[in-house]
Design a protein that fits this description.
Elements: E1 4-15, E2 20-26, H1 28-33, E3 39-43, E4 54-57, E5 60-61, E6 65-70, H2 74-80, E7 87-94, E8 107-113, H3 118-127, E9 133-140, H4 150-154, E10 157-163, E11 170-171, E12 188-193, H5 196-208, E13 212-216, E14 232-235, E15 238-241, E16 248-250
Parallel strand pairs: 8-9, 8-12, 9-10, 10-11, 12-13
Antiparallel strand pairs: 1-2, 1-7, 2-6, 3-4, 3-7, 5-6, 13-16, 14-15
The protein binds flavin-adenine dinucleotide and FE2/S2 (inorganic) cluster.
Flavin-adenine dinucleotide binds near residues 39, 50, 70, 73 and 74.
């Protein structure tokens, strides 16, 4: 896997639903080496403020590298102001990858919470040609956090949505959607990314049903290269860095 640090031209940076933006970068070479679940570390401004880069999962990696993001603070608000034609300093692709399902897998269930759905899009691109049943269970705070999920459908996924306030889909947490699927420990693979309480619920569900589950974990990052240990999480194998050892872990190992 080849990592690149370079300045890439912004081709688009637009609001795609009330809460989310999509950034597209002219980064063909990087797109070729991105695996599902990897992330990029972006210097969001030209100045020293904010000082640290910000990590974002790769949302899609076809001819361009795309990132789906929510403007929540200083860095992401600054990113939302960047214009097509400008350049962004990017380091990536970083981190490990989701392992694609083993032979014999009949059903893949992707469970995303909020912006955590981002790495599941690129995963669904990698799975598009697989014959297995593909399902996306997506939990969001409200309708404003639900973007057009048609590209998941184009990749052959059945899509089910729950919102905390009931403004779209089923009323409640993503766990309300677990009853939409009939799983089998031998032939079902689960992939998840989202807020910690959601992933804790997914861990419980996968343990109760004896399912293999890979989870992409997000922590605040500084170096993103495994050097500062700032992004460590507690696992059954001790503290592991989410940037270098992860972000993808076997959910059984993660202590939420
Ligand atoms: C591997 C990885 C992949 C990520 N992928 C995406 C993505 O695809 N799209 C996206 O929008 N965001 C993603 N994030 C989260 C993103 O990095 C943070 O939202 C961003 O760093 C916030 O920067 P800020 O300056 O806007 O916010 P800050 O001003 O730094 O913080 C604003 C708020 O966001 C919280 N926050 C900051 N960093 C994180 C974080 N890493 N995880 C959770 N909460 C955080 C803070 O606690 C605070 O409440 C990812 C994080 C990691 C580690
Ligand atoms: S951010 Fe420095 S070790 Fe992960």
């Amino acid at each position: 896997m080849r990592q690149i640090q370079n300045k890439f031209k912004i081709t688009a940076n637009e609001k795609i639903c009330p809460k989310f933006y999509k950034l597209s970068l002219d980064a063909k070479e990087m797109a070729r080496s991105v695996g599902p679940g990897q992330f990029v570390h972006i210097k969001v401004t030209e100045s020293l403020e904010p000082f640290f880069r910000r990590p974002f999962s790769v949302f899609r990696a076809k001819k361009q590298v795309e990132v789906l993001y929510e403007a929540v603070g200083k860095g992401t608000v600054a990113l939302a102001k960047r214009e097509p034609g400008e350049y962004l300093d990017i380091l990536g692709p970083l981190g490990n990858q989701f392992c694609l399902p083993p032979k014999g897998t009949k059903q893949v269930v992707m469970i995303g919470g909020g912006i955590g759905v981002a790495p599941l899009m690129v995963l669904s691109d990698f799975l598009a040609k697989e014959k297995c049943e593909k399902i996306l269970l997506y939990g969001a705070r409200s309708k404003g956090h639900v973007f057009d999920l048609k590209d998941f459908k184009k990749n052959g996924c059945k899509v089910f949505v729950a919102t905390d306030d009931g403004s779209y889909g089923v009323h409640g947490r993503v766990s309300e959607l677990f009853n939409k699927i009939k799983t089998d420990p031998q032939t079902t693979a689960i992939y998840t990314c989202g807020p910690k309480p959601m992933m804790a619920a997914v861990k419980k569900f996968s343990e109760q049903n004896k399912l293999n589950c890979q989870a992409s974990c997000e922590e605040v990052m500084a170096c993103a290269l495994g050097a500062c240990l700032g992004c460590s999480i507690k696992t059954t194998k001790g503290y592991r860095t989410t940037c270098y050892d992860g972000p993808v872990f076997d959910i059984k190992e993660v202590i939420f």
